[in-house]
Amino acid sequence: MKLFTRQRVLILSALLFSTASYAQNNTNAPLPYGAIPTERQLKWHETEMYCIIHFTPTTFQNKEWGYGDADPSIFNPTKFNALQIVGAAKSGGFKGIVYVAKHHDGFALWPTKTAAYNISESPWKAGKGDMVREFQLAAKQEGMKFGIYCSPWDRNNPNYGTPAYLDIYRNQLRELYSNYGDLFMSWHDGANGGDGYYGGKKEKRKVDQATYYDWLNTWAITRKLQPGASIFSDIGLDVRWVGNEKGMSPETSWSTIDLKGNGDRPAMPGFLDDSNLGSGTRNGKQWIPFEGDVSLRPGWFYHADQNDQVKTVEELFNIYCHSVGHGGALDLGLSPTPEGILYQKDVNTLAEFGKLLKQVFAHNLATEAKISASNIRKGPYGTNNLTDADRYSYWATDDNVHQASVQLDFKKPARFSMIQLRENIKLGQRIDSIGVDIFKNGHWTLLAQATSIGANRIIRLAHAETASKMRIRVYAPVSIALSEIGLYLEPAIKTTAKLKTGNEYNKTSWSVTGIAQSKIADAKKAIDNNDTTFFETKTNNHLDIDFGKQIDFSAVGYLPAQDKSAEGAIEKYELLISNDGKKWDVVAEGEFSNIKANPILQRISLTSKVSARYLRLSAKQTVSKENNFLRIAEIEVYR
Ligand code: FUL
């Protein structure tokens, strides 16, 4: 009996020993490669989709940037319903919301102790309201994550531009980080247009963006009070801007990046060489993935005249594929109406988009295939991990195998139009590139290629393909750690054509005038109904149009050049009319807010209808390093 027990002990210890060495083999995971994400960033990657909500006095002013002088009494929504807004975001498949607690106009949407210009001065809820709380609670009720955007630029605060404002701003962050639960994002931007109300001074205040906000110390407050919040800015500590407000990253977009400052000074928000924000840097020193921000509407705030320009489900899905599908996140702007709810079309579009995503990803066809690999690392690294919907279990190769392939054999041919791949990013972004082949007519044919796999890579094929065998060739400088393969068939998406307002004048009988003969052909590009061509000038700061006869109009549209850069876009304008082309009257002047980041069609609504034969759009300030550099893609005139 004793012996038997001893034997059992021996056997048991032998077993234990062998399990231990087996376990050791199993945990002989590939070593991480290059920069890797933090726990906080992993959570952010898993979130993938969230919405940013702009609802401030600027909504009631029908503007994109408030100047800082709005009377708080205008902020008084009559049908405010945070659950309607947050619920609509949830139905779109979004997992969090970021609320704009203070935009550039400086109005604090919570009862802050740091500045008088806040929600307690508004008549809403008799000055007892707190919008940040409303959105926090709605997010909680809907099971959504909650984040906050507090604009550093403050066009109301009299102290803006002095060191005293930095203390005020930091105290605002302290309040927001201490009283509204756990935040998943702390959102900042680099916008700084210079001029503003500033306590009535109405002047231009320039700050040195590289030093003024002392970001590293300011963000130390975030880290201390909200350790789980990912910090976003054009270059945040955790998440970077994609470099445009279209939500789209380039084909190749690495989660790693080497930050480039300006000259000798280090990169800081609002002060950096932004040429690699979209692409990132292969083997970059830091893991800072991108967020693609884009609004559901052309602007970030609600404008009734954009009700017919709500993005279609098709557009949203394309953006999704270029943001989430390129290893980043999608941050979609929602714009409540002055009543305090989302416009019904916005609600419907979100619901349809959510339905589409569910439909697309309902069934992974790769789960039907037998998957084999040219090399499999010893341990729990088999190909079964590739279809288990777990981002962190993975197929891996031996340390010395840097090129390998996996093959999918289907019992019955599979029809698919999207390929999705993920790496286990806990081990870094290892893969350089992949090639996908299908077996057709007796030989392998190249179907698709991609670089920058990372957290997620969606390859959308031009047409659906049917194949009974597929192979993915993977190339890396180290062993491979691929976690997921997905194959999906995209359903046909109903295309809902966007209506033109129908109010634009036809431009065929228009001409340009008051310009040298040699430049006329060029200037006509501003009235050729072609958004891709533009009039560019370094000598004129305006363009005159002759309608051929007197016409009545109530609004004018200006579309800046639509190529990659916003250079030459008008920031400050004057609009003049004339009946003889000699004597001009100013009918409107103002700023095209946010045009540098979001160069969309700008609409100037006149206070009343005017009647004139000639129109002059004059640029007082453009996005440009040179004087007088002006670009106009198109001018519209609305009845
Ligand atoms: C930008 C701001 O200037 C816009 O107004 C908007 O808030 C957008 C989300 O960020 O930087």
Automatic annotation (TrEMBL):
Its EC number is 3.2.1.51. One of its GO terms (cellular component) is lysosome. GO terms for molecular function: alpha-L-fucosidase activity. Pfam families: Alpha_L_fucos (PF01120), F5_F8_type_C (PF00754). InterPro entries: FA58C, Galactose-bd-like_sf, GH, Glyco_hydro_29, Glyco_hydro_29_N. Residues 492-639 form the F5/8 type C domain. Residues 1-23 form the signal peptide. It comes from the Bacteria. The keyword Manganese does not apply. The keyword Signal applies. It is an enzyme of class 3 (hydrolase). One of its GO terms (biological process) is glycoside catabolic process. Keywords: Glycosidase, Hydrolase, Signal. Belongs to the glycosyl hydrolase 29 family. This is alpha-L-fucosidase. It comes from Pedobacter cryoconitis.
